[in-house]
User: What shape does this take?
Amino acid sequence: MRAFQLVEWQRPPELREVPVPEPGPGQVLVKVGGAGACHSDLHIMEAPAPAPGEGTRLPFTLGHENAGWVETPGPGVAGFAPGDPVIVYGPWGCGLCANCREGKENYCQRTGGLGGGLGGHDGGMAEYLLVPASRFLIPLGTLDPREAAPLSDAGLTSYHAVKRSLHLLGPGSTAVVIGAGALGQMAIQMLQALSAATTVVTVDTAAGKLEIAKRMGADEALLSGDQAVTRIMDMTRQQGAQLVLDMVGIDPTLRMAAQVARVLGHLTIVGLGGGALPVNFSSPPHECSVASPYWGSIPELMEVITLAQQQKIKMLVEHFPLERVGEAYQFLHDGKIQGRAVITP
Ligand code: NAD
Ligand code: ZN
Ligand code: ZN
Assistant: This one.
């Protein structure tokens, strides 16, 4: 089969011919329907080689946002049959540590929550994906894997980031989403679905993204800059927003996040832009908590799938065949993807 593999650090990945994996006991072979091209993959492609000793195995197949159909359940797998549409929970934990037993395999105490397409494990930018345990598969019901794939990361990560702050989002509250790309667009819809009384403001550098964000339910969509800060402060009577989600994570967005967050609020860094948040006694505001959530839990993915089945959330998807995967990432890099590029092998 063909697979889009990172072969060397800081070199463009390559489409290569590799064997179709055989599922062992408890494992499941999935025929990939859709594999989302996440901005994190661009960070991986640009990353320098890890220090010796903490190395990630190369080559490995990219793609950590996957859905498809069960192809072959391995020996001992119950509850799944060939042809079942499934979404793949991405962070593959050990299943046995305290966090994994709560379904929070993103915070596995042994594996660190890396999975297919990350940390040297083969991912879904290929015709087939070997999933190491059937507990990582969630049935999709009537949802199409080619449309649903981004729910496993763009959807789940945004959902987790919103849900952990829901107690702050009462009537009259404000949430700011910085970066209205795939994750930001999901977060806007999640905020509307889970907290209809919250005013949702989004900020982006691209006017086109602001248009899409408005269609997806943002109450205000502002071009990045000082005027955006002034507008948000005016809207909140100079108090700032209860929740600020930074889906970019570079120095300027983190600075803006601190300027528009409120006392006792939440400033949540989701973007892996590599910026630093300056912290002193009065900035971020007093008792504003800062968190950097990574992905989400298995039960949360089930909730995300339910929201999609209820048609409360929908990812704006552009499909690319596997032979155009390199082009899809170039478009993502150039800001030309409106929502999420999904590879359909
Ligand atoms: P994307 O490319 O679809 O969206 C990024 C958006 O940010 C774009 O709309 C872009 O115009 C906007 N942007 C860029 N610079 C900006 C600025 N200075 N101010 C305002 N907006 C700006 O990316 P994505 O796939 O949605 O991913 C977003 C980030 O989240 C990436 O850094 C990715 O690595 C990270 N991520 C983190 C997790 C996690 O678990 N924490 C999971 C998935 C993705
Ligand atoms: Zn991702
Ligand atoms: Zn674990």
User: Anything to note?
Assistant: The CA atoms of residues 35 and 66 lie 5 Å apart. The mean pLDDT is 97. Residues 38-40, 43, 153-154, 157, 178-183, 203-206, 209, 224, 247-249, 252-253, 270-273, 293-295, 332, 335 surround nicotinamide-adenine-dinucleotide (ligand 1) (CB under 6 Å). DSSP finds ten helices and 16 strands in the chain.
